[in-house]
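User: Just a sanity check before I run the rest of the batch. Below are the C-alpha cells for the first item. I only need the designed sequence back.
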C-alpha cells in the first residue's frame, strides 16, 4: 500500500510540474474555451509558434490535451477528465492566497504592533552579529530541501511544546514559505505569548538566493 501511495503521489507531482508554468496554464485556459490551432494559440498567448508548440507538447505528454491534424494544421483540445475543475481549483487557490496577502498587508498598516516584520537588510545585519535566532517554522521535509542560512527548524505544529529549545536572550525571527504563509505570523503570536521578543521575515524562503541544503 505504501508503494502504491508513493507511486500515486509521484504521478500527481509530475502533473503538477507540468502545470508549473504560466504559459501552459494560459494555453490550457484558451483551449478550455474550444479547439484551437497552434497558430491561434500562439497569437492569443503572445508566444512564438515554436514556443507555443513546445509547451503544448509537454501538456500533451502529461495527458492534458489531445491533438487533431487537418492538413498541415494541428488543432488542440482538452483531454477527457476533470481538467476544467483542476484549472478552476487552482484559480480559486490563487485568489485565496491573494486575499490572504492583502489581509496581511492590511494588518501591517492597521495593526503594526501585531505584525512587526523585519527587512532582509536588517535580518542580514543581525545574523552577522549573532544577535538574533532565525526560526524556520515549515515542516521538516521542506526545511531539508532548502532553508535560510543559520536557521533552525521547529515546525509550527510543534512550536508550543519546543519553546524551551530557543534561547530566551535572543530576539526570534520566524519565517515560512512566503508572504501568503501565515505560519510565521502565528509563530510570532505564540512566541510573544511565551515571553520571547519576536518578529517575522515576511518574504520567507521565496526571495532568498542561495538557500542552504542539508
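Assistant: Here's the designed sequence for the first item:
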Amino acid at each position: 500500500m505504501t508503494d502504491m501511495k508513493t507511486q500515486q503521489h509521484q504521478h500527481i507531482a509530475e502533473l503538477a510540474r507540468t502545470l508549473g508554468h504560466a504559459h501552459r496554464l494560459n494555453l490550457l485556459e484558451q483551449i478550455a474555451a474550444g479547439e484551437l490551432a497552434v497558430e491561434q494559440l500562439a497569437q492569443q498567448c503572445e508566444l512564438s509558434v515554436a514556443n507555443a508548440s513546445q509547451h503544448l507538447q509537454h501538456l500533451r505528454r502529461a495527458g492534458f490535451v489531445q491533438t487533431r491534424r487537418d492538413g498541415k494544421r494541428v488543432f488542440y483540445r482538452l483531454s477527457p477528465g476533470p481538467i476544467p475543475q483542476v484549472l478552476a481549483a487552482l484559480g480559486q487557490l490563487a485568489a485565496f492566497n491573494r486575499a490572504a496577502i492583502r489581509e496581511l498587508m492590511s494588518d501591517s498598516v492597521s495593526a503594526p504592533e501585531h505584525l512587526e516584520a523585519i527587512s532582509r537588510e536588517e535580518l542580514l545585519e543581525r545574523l552577522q552579529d549573532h544577535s538574533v535566532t532565525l526560526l524556520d517554522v515549515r515542516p521538516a521535509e521542506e526545511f531539508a530541501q532548502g532553508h535560510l542560512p543559520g536557521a533552525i527548524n521547529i515546525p509550527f505544529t510543534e512550536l508550543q511544546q519546543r519553546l524551551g529549545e530557543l534561547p530566551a536572550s535572543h530576539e526570534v525571527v520566524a519565517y515560512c514559505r512566503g508572504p501568503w504563509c501565515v505560519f510565521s505570523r502565528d509563530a510570532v503570536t505564540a512566541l510573544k505569548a511565551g515571553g520571547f521578543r519576536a518578529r517575522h521575515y515576511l518574504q520567507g524562503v521565496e526571495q532568498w538566493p542561495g538557500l542552504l541544503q542539508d
